[in-house]
DNA sequence: ATAAACCTTGGAGTTTAATCTAAGGTCAAG
DNA sequence: CTTGACCTTAGATTAAACTCCAAGGTTTAT
């Protein structure tokens, strides 16, 4: 069992943030001490980890509440409803994944192209890298027989 | 050349948002009409696309300004500085990618497990799926020896 | 030439997600 | 048995990212 200060320290957030999440229905401590202190158990901690992960990849607290509601009213929802909700979120996640992979490719290409030395960065630009990675994809489609050289997804 | 209303319509955002981005140094129109109307060109439009993509994957406008600054002061920065900045952002992107892949796996497993029918969703939970996908990974790693059980990160 | 639909600015208001403040209760250590 | 670090509540304040409003100028179609 963690008190609010212990759990918040564990995830490097403020105790206030945990109270805020509780007020907004995202995470309630599973019990209270005799004196009213919040007591969080391991499941509560897992749930918090989920919330923080989802937040880190760009979901709003409302989005996260939607996802968590799948658990909360488990037996009150038809499986079809749950599936629809999950599939919608899955589409969002996969769209984000595609964007991020695009970003990662561009950043890598930028990092590799860049001399890394003390010269001016005349040709270093994210936008150029994004453009050239677009072009690279097109080029790859037209020259697929070179695919064994630096194959990327 | 696009006027503010045209560009905002193109990306389904408010004209106010474009003025806000301008005020905060993220995107300025490359020119103005005689009467002072903002005129955005194709490069401006690309830059906006980048901003919206980065936002969608969870970067703050400050983060995005950092990334764009790589372009803005191109020849004023040493290549080494650019490389350091890019590599920092790349680490962030790859951390987000890992989180998202974790999510996508869990959501897929949830979607597959779920009957999708009119029955109650007794066993449908994101948290369970996240847990079980964790366990799955561990199970795979320890598949040949059952000597240690309950190993967790 | 005048309405409708655009645009300008400055400034105020909203939403989301915290974060802080005040006034007090709890608990372990000296 | 008091000091200091913790906790409680309600409510105020902050920061980021918009979003709206008022008062007026511009463009285009009838």
Automatic annotation (TrEMBL), chains A, B:
What the entry lists under CDD domains is as follows: HTH_HMRTR (cd04770)
Matching entries from InterPro entries are given as: DNA-bd_dom_put_sf, MerR-type_HTH_dom, MerR_fam, Tscrpt_reg_MerR_DNA-bd, ZntR
For this UniProt record, the keywords arranged alphabetically read as follows: DNA-binding, Transcription, Transcription regulation
Q: Which residues form the HTH merR-type domain?
A: 1-70
Top-level taxon: Bacteria
Q: Which NCBIfam families match?
A: PRK09514.1 (NF007069), ZntR (TIGR02043)
Name of the protein: Heavy metal-responsive transcriptional regulator
């Amino acid at each position: 069992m963690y008190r609010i200060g212990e759990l918040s320290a564990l995830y490097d957030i403020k105790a206030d943030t945990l109270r805020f999440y509780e007020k907004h229905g995202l995470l309630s401590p599973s019990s209270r001490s005799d004196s009213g202190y919040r007591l969080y158990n391991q499941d509560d901690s897992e749930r918090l980890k989920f919330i923080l992960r989802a937040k880190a990849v760009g979901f709003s607290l409302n989005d996260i509440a939607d996802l968590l509601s799948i658990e909360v009213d488990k037996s009150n929802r038809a499986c079809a409803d749950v599936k629809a909700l999950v599939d919608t979120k899955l589409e969002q996640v996969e769209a984000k994944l595609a964007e991020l992979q695009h970003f990662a490719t561009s950043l890598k290409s930028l990092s590799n192209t860049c001399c890394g030395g003390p010269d001016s960065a005349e040709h270093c630009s994210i936008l150029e890298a994004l453009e050239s990675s677009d072009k690279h994809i097109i080029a790859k489609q037209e020259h697929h027989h070179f695919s064994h050289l630096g194959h990327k997804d």
